[in-house]
Design goal:
By secondary structure, the chain is mainly alpha-helical. It contains 27 helices and five strands. The protein has a five-stranded parallel beta sheet with strand order 2-1-3-4-5, sandwiched between helices. It is globular and about 90 Å long.
């Protein structure tokens, strides 16, 4: 076993304080000097903090959430971590006067070592600082082994430390580390017994979450769900529980259930870009166009001035607006098209487009022309100007596939799908979700040649011309593409009423009617649509006994 380095003495520590209030700097610096800390640096904004970290390495970083207008503490922390200015060996403390649950959840996600609420008190600063420094000093063997992935050795050192009366105040932390190591070692049965034993001693969030995780990893779903009911009632465990549930259900490919869990977690801590990306992927998989738009708008909003900020985020907002506009009509479609035009102007205003971005914008413009039914113009844009030799990422190719589909260019669509498959690598949850999405896309692109909006328009024409079965087929395909669209569900019931007048519904038609009624039963509808729904259900002899009950 490699020799474990000794922790630094207090007078060797380098501390960085990042806050936009001079009084905070003065208070912390004088309090730490009294403790024997001799090297305290100050930064009043994120830019200055990064410059200091480029020149020196700090053992302790005290970071205000509200730093200044250039970057908040959340974004600064991510940047420092991304650039390895902060490592597992660093002690990080967040400072904030705000204690809203949303902010606390966002900070918990970053996993700092502590969170100090302003206004600060010198005695409290000294007490908490000493506590944190002593963790590094007295538990350094355990922490060193965990940092290096040697979890068995970490458990060995933690168990030895539990016998040391000199570290009694750190016993809860040591026990938490042992539990984390057991999960890392995938010894879930032992982890379950371990966390179960700790429940009688501690009521901490990490004990309950650790037990729930161990149960889910062993597929002990019923036992886990009994625990989950209580955890969702607690402020300190609700957010972590939703995340845990999402991971479990994605692993089981129950993507509709996972989607609801990720939505709930995102409401509690909306700033996490990776979670919003997962939310976007799950919304796509569940064909929730409005959910997709909300997720990409959140990504663009919360990534501003962060390491995640990129023109791609703005492009994804535009692309998702186009996806939604291709499913709706009337004033909603017109409003979306105006929004799309404004977003495009924002992306292209006053800048020379680099070749890669020019290609992306070309595809977007072609899709915008398709929305206006200018199919020939759209096709000409792609055939005359698209530069296929330019590198295209997964989202670029997805957008190009949709552009081809909207133009009825089926073969080109399928070629792009093959390209997309080669771009998916790894076995991460994101890859798993996107891969499932592509499987569904492939089936639909092979079988369905039109957009939702086009299919709805075709159905309306066929119904007016008394071609009831073609109208029904159009609507079934539209429902496949947009399974949450209430207007399609209502139209399906209307068409099925006409079919039922001439002959009894087949089993498959009856199932479509029940599913449409179920969707409309869960939705808040205007009075006139409620009346139509009830008339159609009555005509089809569907009532509350035949339609599945809405879950509470």
């Amino acid at each position: 076993m490699d020799k474990i380095p000794l922790p630094k003495a207090i007078d060797e520590l380098k501390v960085l304080v990042v806050d936009n209030q001079a009084l905070i700097h003065d208070l912390i610096k004088s309090a730490l000097l009294e403790l024997g800390v001799q090297q305290v640096s100050s930064a009043q904004n994120a830019f200055h903090a990064v410059r200091l970290c480029q020149k020196d390495t700090y053992d302790v970083v005290l970071l205000a959430f509200n730093v200044s207008s250039d970057k908040d503490g959340f974004h600064l922390f991510e940047e420092l971590k991304h650039n390895h200015y902060i490592s597992d060996k660093s002690t990080v403390v967040f400072l904030s006067a705000e204690t809203s649950m949303e902010l606390v959840n966002c900070i918990i996600e970053l996993q700092p070592d502590d969170f100090w609420v302003k206004p600060l008190d010198a005695n409290r600063v000294q007490q908490r600082f000493n506590y944190l420094v002593n963790i590094r000093r007295k538990l350094h063997k355990v922490m060193h082994c965990m940092d290096n992935g040697d979890y068995a050795a970490a458990i060995y050192h933690a168990e030895r430390s539990l016998k040391d009366s000199g570290v009694v105040e750190y016993h809860p932390r040591l026990k938490r580390m042992i539990g984390e190591c057991l999960v890392h070692l995938r010894d879930y049965a032992t982890a379950e017994r371990y966390f179960s034993g700790l429940k009688a001693e501690y009521d901490h969030a990490w004990v309950h979450i650790g037990l729930a995780k161990a149960l889910f990893k062993q597929d002990k779903v019923e036992e886990a769900e009994l625990l989950i009911e209580d955890l969702l009632q607690r402020n300190d465990t609700r957010f972590l529980t939703y995340d845990l549930l999402a991971q479990y259900y994605i692993g089981k490919e129950q993507f509709d259930v996972a989607y609801e869990q990720v939505k709930a977690a995102s409401k509690l801590a909306p700033r996490n870009i990776e979670r919003n990306k997962k939310l976007w992927d799950l919304a796509r998989l569940n064909r929730d166009k409005y959910g997709q738009l909300a997720a990409v708008q959140n990504m663009a909003k919360f990534a501003k001035n962060s390491i995640h900020d990129s023109p791609e985020l703005g492009l994804n907002v535009i692309r998702t607006m186009i996806d939604l506009a291709a499913t709706v009509s009337g004033t909603e479609a017109e409003k979306l098209q105006r929004q799309i035009t404004r977003e495009v102007e924002g992306v292209t205003r006053g800048e020379f487009l680099e070749p890669g971005l020019a290609n992306k914008m070309l595809i977007i413009k072609a899709r915008m022309e398709s929305l206006k039914n200018n199919k020939r113009t759209a096709e000409q844009l792609l055939t005359d100007n698209l530069q296929p030799e330019m590198a295209m990422n997964l989202e670029d190719n997805l957008d190009l596939m949709k552009a081809y589909h909207e133009l009825g260019m089926k073969e080109e669509c399928l070629v792009i799908l093959d390209t997309l498959r080669t771009q998916l690598a790894g076995d991460t949850l994101a890859s798993q979700v996107v891969d499932e999405y592509l499987k569904r896309e492939e089936i639909e692109r092979r079988e369905i040649k039109f957009t939702t909006k086009e299919l709805k328009e075709m159905a309306a024409v066929n119904y007016r011309e008394n071609r009831i079965i073609p109208a029904y087929n159009n609507l079934c395909q539209a429902m496949t593409l947009s399974p949450h669209d209430k207007s399609i569900a209502l139209s399906l019931l209307k068409v099925l009423v006409q079919i039922n007048k001439t002959e009894p519904l087949s089993d498959s038609q009856y199932e479509v009617a029940v599913n449409a009624a179920d969707l409309l039963g869960k939705a808040a509808l205007p009075a006139n649509q409620q009346q139509k729904r009830d008339e159609y259900l009555s005509a089809l002899s569907l009532n509350e006994n035949t339609v599945p009950a809405t879950p509470e």
